[in-house]
Amino acid sequence: MNDGTQITEHGTRNTNPLARLTSHVSRYLGIYLALWKNSVAREMIFKSNFLLWIVVELLWFGLQLSFISVLYLHTEHIGTWTKWQVVMLIGGSHFIQQLFQAFFLINCTNLSELIRTGKLDFLLLLPVNTRFVVSLRQVDLGAFVNASFAVAVMAYAARQMHLTPALLQILGFLVLCAAGVLIHYSLMFLLATVSFWTVRAQGIVWGYYNLFNIARMPDEAFQGLFKALFTFAIPMLLVSNVPVRVLVKPLTTPTWALLLLAMTVLCFFISEVGWRASVRHYTSASS
Questions:
Q1: Nearest one of 186, 180, 96, 183 to 146, comparing CA atoms
Q2: Whole-angstrom Cα distance, residue 225 to residue 199?
Q3: Are the C-beta atoms of 8 and 109 separated by less than 8 Å?
Q4: Does 261 lie in the same domain as 228?
Q5: Domain limits for position 32
Q6: Residue 5: inside a domain, yes or no?
Q7: Same domain, residue pair 65 and 138
Q8: How confident is the model at residue 230 (pLDDT cuts 50, 70, 90)?
Q9: pTM
C-alpha cells in the first residue's frame, strides 16, 4: 500500500512534503547550474560572436533613443508622456526584452531544430521535466550586458526628471518586468510548438519577436482596435507600459498591474496546454 512515503537515494524514508519539495527544487537548481556552465563555456569558445552581438544590440538601442530625440524636436508630448518618460519607457522595454533574450529566446527558436534533428527524442527520455530542459538549456550571456545598459539609461532618465522611485516602486517594477518576460516566453514557446506539426516554425517565432518594437512606444500613441490588439491579444504594450508606469506615472488603481499578472498566469497555462498536446501528437506519430 502507498502510504505517501518516499524512498530517498540514501535508502531512508522521507514523509515530509516540504523536504521532498526542497529536494526537488535543489535537483532542478543543480541541473540549471550545469546548463549555465555549458553556456559560459560555449560563449568563451565563440568570444568574437559574443562581443559582436553585444555591439549590434547596443547600436540598435542607440538608434531607438536617437529616434525619440528627433521626434521630440517636433513635439513636447506623446499623449501625456514627456521626452524623458519615453526614454525611461524605451529603457524599460529594452530591459525586459534583453532578460527574455538571455533566458528564453534561443531556446524557443531552437525547438524546431530539436524536432527536425531528432534530438528532442533524447530529451524526452531524460528523468526530468522536458519543458524545463527545452526552455532553459542555453543562456545568452551577452543579453545581461545589454540589460545593464538599459538600466543605466533608465537611471539617467530618472535623474533628468529628478525622479527618485521608492523601494516599493522598484520592487513592483521588477516583479512586473518578470511577469512581462514570462508572458513573452509563454507566447513565443506556444508559437514554437507549431514545429511539432509543421517541423519548421521559426518564421512565426521571429515574427513575434519583431513585434517587440511596438513595446517601445507609449500606449497613448495608439487608438482603437490597434491598441486593443497589442494590449490584450498580443500584449506588447501591456508588458512594457505597466512596469514603467509604476516608476514614472504611479498607477491610481492596481487594475493594470493585476491584469498583467493575470495575463502571465493565463498565457503560461495556455502554452502548457499547447505543449502537452503537441508532445502527445509527436510521441504518437513516432510510435
A1: 96
A2: 33
A3: no
A4: yes
A5: 10-45
A6: no
A7: yes
A8: very high
A9: 0.89
